[in-house]
Design brief:
Chain A has 255 residues and is an all-alpha fold. Chain A is 66% helix and 0% strand. With 97 residues, chain B is α+β, with helices and mostly antiparallel strands. Chain B has two helices and three strands, in the order ββαβα. Chain B has helices spanning 34-45, 70-74, and strands spanning 9-16, 24-31, 53-58. Classes of the chains: A mainly alpha (255), B alpha+beta (97).
Chain lengths: 255, 97
Protein backbone atom coordinates (compact mmCIF):
# COMPACT_ATOMS: atom_id res chain seq x y z
CA UNK A 1 0.00 0.00 0.00
CA UNK A 2 1.16 3.47 -0.87
CA UNK A 3 0.27 5.12 2.37
CA UNK A 4 -1.31 4.53 5.75
CA UNK A 5 -4.69 6.03 4.86
CA UNK A 6 -5.09 3.76 1.89
CA UNK A 7 -3.99 0.77 3.92
CA UNK A 8 -6.45 1.45 6.74
CA UNK A 9 -9.26 2.06 4.24
CA UNK A 10 -8.45 -1.26 2.62
CA UNK A 11 -8.44 -2.92 6.05
CA UNK A 12 -11.93 -1.56 6.75
CA UNK A 13 -13.15 -2.58 3.31
CA UNK A 14 -12.02 -6.18 3.91
CA UNK A 15 -13.62 -6.14 7.35
CA UNK A 16 -16.83 -4.95 5.71
CA UNK A 17 -16.94 -7.99 3.43
CA UNK A 18 -15.70 -10.40 6.08
CA UNK A 19 -18.05 -9.08 8.79
CA UNK A 20 -21.03 -9.18 6.43
CA UNK A 21 -20.34 -12.85 5.69
CA UNK A 22 -19.76 -13.59 9.40
CA UNK A 23 -22.89 -11.89 10.73
CA UNK A 24 -25.11 -13.23 7.96
CA UNK A 25 -23.67 -16.71 8.65
CA UNK A 26 -24.53 -16.29 12.31
CA UNK A 27 -28.11 -15.30 11.52
CA UNK A 28 -28.58 -18.27 9.18
CA UNK A 29 -27.10 -20.62 11.77
CA UNK A 30 -30.00 -19.62 14.03
CA UNK A 31 -32.23 -21.63 11.68
CA UNK A 32 -30.42 -24.86 12.61
CA UNK A 33 -33.13 -27.24 13.82
CA UNK A 34 -35.88 -24.73 12.98
CA UNK A 35 -36.10 -24.99 9.18
CA UNK A 36 -39.62 -25.38 7.75
CA UNK A 37 -38.61 -28.77 6.29
CA UNK A 38 -35.59 -30.98 6.77
CA UNK A 39 -34.17 -30.19 3.33
CA UNK A 40 -34.42 -26.44 3.92
CA UNK A 41 -32.87 -26.74 7.36
CA UNK A 42 -29.87 -28.40 5.73
CA UNK A 43 -29.76 -25.82 2.91
CA UNK A 44 -29.76 -22.79 5.24
CA UNK A 45 -27.09 -24.20 7.48
CA UNK A 46 -24.97 -25.28 4.49
CA UNK A 47 -25.12 -21.71 3.26
CA UNK A 48 -24.23 -20.50 6.73
CA UNK A 49 -21.10 -22.68 6.71
CA UNK A 50 -20.10 -21.42 3.25
CA UNK A 51 -20.37 -17.86 4.54
CA UNK A 52 -18.34 -18.67 7.63
CA UNK A 53 -15.62 -19.98 5.33
CA UNK A 54 -15.70 -16.77 3.32
CA UNK A 55 -15.45 -14.66 6.45
CA UNK A 56 -12.43 -16.66 7.61
CA UNK A 57 -10.55 -15.95 4.36
CA UNK A 58 -11.55 -12.31 4.33
CA UNK A 59 -10.74 -11.64 7.99
CA UNK A 60 -7.40 -13.41 7.65
CA UNK A 61 -6.65 -11.22 4.64
CA UNK A 62 -7.77 -8.14 6.61
CA UNK A 63 -5.38 -9.10 9.41
CA UNK A 64 -2.54 -9.34 6.89
CA UNK A 65 -3.33 -5.91 5.49
CA UNK A 66 -3.52 -4.40 8.96
CA UNK A 67 -0.15 -5.91 9.79
CA UNK A 68 -0.57 -5.98 13.55
CA UNK A 69 -0.60 -9.73 13.89
CA UNK A 70 -4.34 -10.13 14.38
CA UNK A 71 -5.68 -13.39 12.97
CA UNK A 72 -9.25 -14.29 11.99
CA UNK A 73 -10.18 -15.24 15.57
CA UNK A 74 -8.77 -12.06 17.07
CA UNK A 75 -10.79 -10.04 14.57
CA UNK A 76 -13.99 -12.04 14.95
CA UNK A 77 -14.03 -12.36 18.71
CA UNK A 78 -12.11 -9.41 20.08
CA UNK A 79 -13.65 -6.42 18.37
CA UNK A 80 -16.58 -4.39 19.63
CA UNK A 81 -19.69 -3.25 17.82
CA UNK A 82 -18.23 0.10 16.79
CA UNK A 83 -15.43 -1.72 14.98
CA UNK A 84 -17.66 -4.03 12.97
CA UNK A 85 -18.32 -2.96 9.39
CA UNK A 86 -20.93 -5.48 8.24
CA UNK A 87 -23.86 -4.11 6.24
CA UNK A 88 -26.88 -3.26 8.40
CA UNK A 89 -29.07 -5.77 6.59
CA UNK A 90 -26.97 -8.72 7.74
CA UNK A 91 -27.60 -8.05 11.43
CA UNK A 92 -31.40 -7.77 11.12
CA UNK A 93 -33.27 -10.54 12.96
CA UNK A 94 -34.48 -13.46 10.85
CA UNK A 95 -38.22 -12.90 11.19
CA UNK A 96 -40.21 -15.56 9.34
CA UNK A 97 -38.96 -17.73 6.50
CA UNK A 98 -39.95 -15.19 3.82
CA UNK A 99 -38.03 -12.46 5.65
CA UNK A 100 -34.91 -14.61 5.94
CA UNK A 101 -35.14 -15.63 2.29
CA UNK A 102 -35.49 -12.07 1.03
CA UNK A 103 -32.64 -10.89 3.28
CA UNK A 104 -30.55 -13.78 1.97
CA UNK A 105 -31.42 -12.93 -1.62
CA UNK A 106 -30.45 -9.27 -1.20
CA UNK A 107 -27.19 -10.12 0.55
CA UNK A 108 -26.17 -12.96 -1.76
CA UNK A 109 -26.82 -10.73 -4.77
CA UNK A 110 -24.69 -8.05 -3.11
CA UNK A 111 -21.97 -10.67 -2.72
CA UNK A 112 -22.32 -11.89 -6.31
CA UNK A 113 -21.84 -8.41 -7.78
CA UNK A 114 -19.06 -7.57 -5.31
CA UNK A 115 -17.08 -10.79 -5.81
CA UNK A 116 -17.57 -10.51 -9.59
CA UNK A 117 -16.03 -7.04 -9.44
CA UNK A 118 -13.20 -8.27 -7.22
CA UNK A 119 -12.32 -10.99 -9.72
CA UNK A 120 -10.62 -8.19 -11.62
CA UNK A 121 -8.73 -6.92 -8.58
CA UNK A 122 -5.04 -6.10 -8.87
CA UNK A 123 -4.59 -7.76 -5.47
CA UNK A 124 -4.11 -11.42 -6.45
CA UNK A 125 -4.85 -12.72 -2.94
CA UNK A 126 -8.20 -10.95 -2.82
CA UNK A 127 -8.91 -11.99 -6.39
CA UNK A 128 -8.42 -15.64 -5.41
CA UNK A 129 -10.79 -15.31 -2.46
CA UNK A 130 -13.36 -13.64 -4.72
CA UNK A 131 -13.18 -16.37 -7.36
CA UNK A 132 -13.72 -19.10 -4.78
CA UNK A 133 -16.49 -17.22 -2.97
CA UNK A 134 -18.32 -16.23 -6.14
CA UNK A 135 -19.26 -19.84 -6.90
CA UNK A 136 -20.80 -20.15 -3.46
CA UNK A 137 -22.59 -16.80 -3.67
CA UNK A 138 -24.09 -17.74 -7.03
CA UNK A 139 -25.56 -20.86 -5.49
CA UNK A 140 -26.90 -18.93 -2.49
CA UNK A 141 -28.45 -16.43 -4.86
CA UNK A 142 -30.05 -19.20 -6.88
CA UNK A 143 -31.43 -20.86 -3.76
CA UNK A 144 -32.95 -17.71 -2.27
CA UNK A 145 -33.97 -16.28 -5.66
CA UNK A 146 -35.99 -19.39 -6.52
CA UNK A 147 -37.74 -19.09 -3.18
CA UNK A 148 -38.46 -15.39 -3.67
CA UNK A 149 -40.26 -16.21 -6.94
CA UNK A 150 -42.25 -19.04 -5.37
CA UNK A 151 -43.24 -17.08 -2.28
CA UNK A 152 -44.16 -13.94 -4.20
CA UNK A 153 -46.04 -15.78 -6.92
CA UNK A 154 -47.37 -18.46 -4.54
CA UNK A 155 -50.33 -18.27 -2.20
CA UNK A 156 -52.02 -15.17 -0.83
CA UNK A 157 -50.29 -15.72 2.49
CA UNK A 158 -46.81 -16.30 1.08
CA UNK A 159 -47.20 -13.19 -1.10
CA UNK A 160 -48.24 -11.11 1.92
CA UNK A 161 -45.31 -12.34 3.97
CA UNK A 162 -42.86 -11.47 1.23
CA UNK A 163 -44.46 -8.03 0.87
CA UNK A 164 -44.09 -7.46 4.62
CA UNK A 165 -40.45 -8.48 4.30
CA UNK A 166 -39.64 -6.10 1.46
CA UNK A 167 -41.41 -3.23 3.19
CA UNK A 168 -39.17 -3.78 6.20
CA UNK A 169 -35.92 -4.62 4.39
CA UNK A 170 -35.84 -2.17 1.51
CA UNK A 171 -34.64 0.64 3.78
CA UNK A 172 -31.34 -1.20 4.26
CA UNK A 173 -30.54 -1.61 0.56
CA UNK A 174 -28.69 1.69 -0.01
CA UNK A 175 -26.46 0.85 2.93
CA UNK A 176 -25.17 -2.18 0.97
CA UNK A 177 -23.44 0.19 -1.42
CA UNK A 178 -22.52 3.04 0.90
CA UNK A 179 -19.45 4.85 -0.29
CA UNK A 180 -16.56 6.30 1.65
CA UNK A 181 -14.57 8.89 -0.37
CA UNK A 182 -11.40 7.35 1.08
CA UNK A 183 -12.19 4.28 -1.06
CA UNK A 184 -11.65 6.22 -4.29
CA UNK A 185 -7.91 5.61 -4.19
CA UNK A 186 -8.51 1.85 -4.00
CA UNK A 187 -10.92 2.05 -6.92
CA UNK A 188 -8.38 4.07 -8.97
CA UNK A 189 -5.73 1.47 -8.21
CA UNK A 190 -8.13 -1.24 -9.51
CA UNK A 191 -8.03 -3.03 -6.18
CA UNK A 192 -11.77 -2.74 -5.52
CA UNK A 193 -14.71 -2.04 -7.84
CA UNK A 194 -16.68 1.23 -7.72
CA UNK A 195 -19.79 0.82 -5.58
CA UNK A 196 -22.08 2.77 -7.95
CA UNK A 197 -21.53 0.21 -10.71
CA UNK A 198 -22.19 -2.61 -8.26
CA UNK A 199 -25.37 -0.94 -7.04
CA UNK A 200 -26.60 -0.72 -10.61
CA UNK A 201 -25.88 -4.40 -11.31
CA UNK A 202 -27.53 -5.37 -8.02
CA UNK A 203 -30.68 -3.40 -8.77
CA UNK A 204 -30.96 -4.93 -12.21
CA UNK A 205 -30.83 -8.51 -10.90
CA UNK A 206 -33.07 -7.81 -7.92
CA UNK A 207 -35.69 -6.02 -10.05
CA UNK A 208 -35.85 -8.91 -12.51
CA UNK A 209 -36.42 -11.48 -9.76
CA UNK A 210 -38.94 -9.32 -7.88
CA UNK A 211 -40.78 -8.75 -11.13
CA UNK A 212 -41.00 -12.49 -11.66
CA UNK A 213 -42.23 -12.80 -8.09
CA UNK A 214 -44.93 -10.16 -8.80
CA UNK A 215 -43.57 -8.04 -5.95
CA UNK A 216 -43.17 -4.29 -6.40
CA UNK A 217 -40.30 -2.27 -5.01
CA UNK A 218 -41.56 0.12 -2.31
CA UNK A 219 -41.18 3.81 -3.07
CA UNK A 220 -40.48 6.80 -0.82
CA UNK A 221 -38.64 4.69 1.70
CA UNK A 222 -36.39 6.38 4.25
CA UNK A 223 -32.99 4.82 3.70
CA UNK A 224 -31.01 3.72 6.75
CA UNK A 225 -27.25 3.99 6.51
CA UNK A 226 -24.32 3.79 8.84
CA UNK A 227 -22.38 0.55 8.40
CA UNK A 228 -19.58 2.25 6.43
CA UNK A 229 -18.80 4.14 9.64
CA UNK A 230 -19.49 1.10 11.86
CA UNK A 231 -22.73 2.61 13.16
CA UNK A 232 -25.23 -0.16 13.65
CA UNK A 233 -28.82 -0.92 14.51
CA UNK A 234 -29.60 -2.21 18.00
CA UNK A 235 -29.37 -5.84 16.89
CA UNK A 236 -25.64 -6.24 16.29
CA UNK A 237 -24.64 -5.91 19.95
CA UNK A 238 -26.77 -8.89 20.93
CA UNK A 239 -25.29 -11.07 18.19
CA UNK A 240 -21.75 -10.16 19.23
CA UNK A 241 -22.54 -10.82 22.89
CA UNK A 242 -23.67 -14.33 22.05
CA UNK A 243 -20.92 -14.98 19.51
CA UNK A 244 -18.05 -13.63 21.57
CA UNK A 245 -18.89 -14.64 25.12
CA UNK A 246 -16.96 -17.90 25.14
CA UNK A 247 -13.65 -16.76 23.65
CA UNK A 248 -13.77 -13.66 25.83
CA UNK A 249 -14.41 -15.61 29.02
CA UNK A 250 -11.77 -18.20 28.17
CA UNK A 251 -9.28 -16.43 25.93
CA UNK A 252 -6.96 -19.42 25.72
CA UNK A 253 -9.63 -22.03 25.17
CA UNK A 254 -8.93 -24.57 22.43
CA UNK A 255 -11.63 -26.47 20.54
CA UNK B 1 -60.05 -40.15 7.60
CA UNK B 2 -58.92 -36.87 6.11
CA UNK B 3 -55.80 -36.85 4.04
CA UNK B 4 -53.07 -36.02 6.51
CA UNK B 5 -50.28 -36.02 4.00
CA UNK B 6 -49.20 -32.39 3.95
CA UNK B 7 -45.75 -33.22 2.62
CA UNK B 8 -44.56 -32.07 -0.75
CA UNK B 9 -44.08 -34.63 -3.50
CA UNK B 10 -41.33 -37.15 -3.14
CA UNK B 11 -38.46 -37.18 -5.64
CA UNK B 12 -35.84 -39.88 -6.12
CA UNK B 13 -32.30 -38.61 -6.39
CA UNK B 14 -29.57 -40.14 -8.55
CA UNK B 15 -26.02 -38.86 -8.44
CA UNK B 16 -23.12 -39.31 -10.79
CA UNK B 17 -19.66 -39.18 -9.29
CA UNK B 18 -17.89 -38.12 -12.47
CA UNK B 19 -18.72 -37.72 -16.11
CA UNK B 20 -19.27 -41.12 -17.74
CA UNK B 21 -19.83 -42.96 -14.46
CA UNK B 22 -23.22 -44.59 -13.86
CA UNK B 23 -25.90 -42.66 -11.97
CA UNK B 24 -26.57 -44.25 -8.62
CA UNK B 25 -29.61 -43.93 -6.41
CA UNK B 26 -28.67 -41.66 -3.52
CA UNK B 27 -32.01 -41.36 -1.72
CA UNK B 28 -35.04 -39.12 -1.89
CA UNK B 29 -36.13 -35.57 -1.06
CA UNK B 30 -39.39 -33.70 -0.72
CA UNK B 31 -39.90 -30.71 -3.01
CA UNK B 32 -42.72 -28.71 -4.60
CA UNK B 33 -41.23 -28.75 -8.10
CA UNK B 34 -38.31 -29.95 -10.20
CA UNK B 35 -35.95 -27.00 -9.64
CA UNK B 36 -36.43 -27.13 -5.88
CA UNK B 37 -35.97 -30.89 -5.95
CA UNK B 38 -32.61 -30.39 -7.67
CA UNK B 39 -31.57 -27.80 -5.08
CA UNK B 40 -32.64 -29.97 -2.18
CA UNK B 41 -30.87 -32.95 -3.69
CA UNK B 42 -27.73 -30.89 -4.07
CA UNK B 43 -27.90 -29.78 -0.43
CA UNK B 44 -28.73 -33.19 1.00
CA UNK B 45 -26.71 -35.54 -1.19
CA UNK B 46 -23.82 -33.55 -2.62
CA UNK B 47 -22.51 -31.43 0.22
CA UNK B 48 -19.14 -33.14 0.16
CA UNK B 49 -18.50 -33.22 -3.58
CA UNK B 50 -20.17 -36.61 -4.00
CA UNK B 51 -21.60 -35.69 -7.39
CA UNK B 52 -20.78 -33.97 -10.62
CA UNK B 53 -24.31 -34.38 -11.97
CA UNK B 54 -27.69 -35.01 -10.36
CA UNK B 55 -30.95 -36.46 -11.66
CA UNK B 56 -34.23 -36.05 -9.83
CA UNK B 57 -37.30 -38.06 -10.80
CA UNK B 58 -40.80 -37.88 -9.29
CA UNK B 59 -41.03 -41.03 -7.20
CA UNK B 60 -44.41 -41.94 -8.70
CA UNK B 61 -42.73 -42.17 -12.10
CA UNK B 62 -40.52 -44.99 -10.93
CA UNK B 63 -41.88 -48.33 -12.06
CA UNK B 64 -40.80 -51.08 -9.71
CA UNK B 65 -41.19 -54.83 -9.77
CA UNK B 66 -43.35 -56.06 -6.91
CA UNK B 67 -42.65 -58.73 -4.30
CA UNK B 68 -45.19 -60.96 -6.13
CA UNK B 69 -42.99 -60.76 -9.22
CA UNK B 70 -40.10 -62.21 -7.29
CA UNK B 71 -40.64 -65.86 -8.24
CA UNK B 72 -41.23 -65.54 -11.99
CA UNK B 73 -38.79 -62.67 -12.40
CA UNK B 74 -35.77 -63.88 -10.58
CA UNK B 75 -35.95 -67.56 -9.63
CA UNK B 76 -35.50 -68.99 -13.15
CA UNK B 77 -31.96 -67.67 -13.11
CA UNK B 78 -31.24 -69.77 -10.04
CA UNK B 79 -30.16 -72.98 -11.74
CA UNK B 80 -28.46 -71.51 -14.76
CA UNK B 81 -25.03 -71.00 -13.42
CA UNK B 82 -23.68 -71.27 -16.96
CA UNK B 83 -24.85 -67.68 -17.36
CA UNK B 84 -22.11 -66.68 -14.97
CA UNK B 85 -18.64 -66.34 -16.36
CA UNK B 86 -17.16 -68.72 -13.76
CA UNK B 87 -16.19 -71.31 -16.34
CA UNK B 88 -13.96 -69.18 -18.42
CA UNK B 89 -10.26 -69.09 -17.87
CA UNK B 90 -9.14 -65.60 -17.15
CA UNK B 91 -6.14 -64.39 -19.07
CA UNK B 92 -3.19 -63.56 -16.89
CA UNK B 93 -2.84 -59.99 -15.89
CA UNK B 94 -6.59 -59.34 -15.60
CA UNK B 95 -7.39 -57.82 -12.27
CA UNK B 96 -10.68 -57.98 -10.41
CA UNK B 97 -11.72 -55.02 -8.32
Amino acid sequence: MENDTMSSTYFRYLLRLGDTALIHAHRLSEWCGHGPILEEDIALTNISLDLLGQSRSLLTKAGDVEGKGRDEDALAFHRDERNFFNVLMAEQPNGDFAFTILKSFFISTFQVVTYSGLEKSEDVALKAIATKSLKEALYHQRHSGQWVVRLGDGTEESNKRLLDAINELWRFTDDLFAHDPAMDALVSASIIPASTALHHAWLEKVSATLNEATIGIPSNVFMMQGSIAAKHTEHLGYILAEMQVLPRMYPDAKW
Amino acid sequence: MANQNTQWDLWEVFTQKRSGAPFEHAGSVHAPDAEMALQNARDVYSRRMEASCIWVVPSHHIVSSTPEDMGPFFDPANDKIYRNPNFYKTPEGIKFE
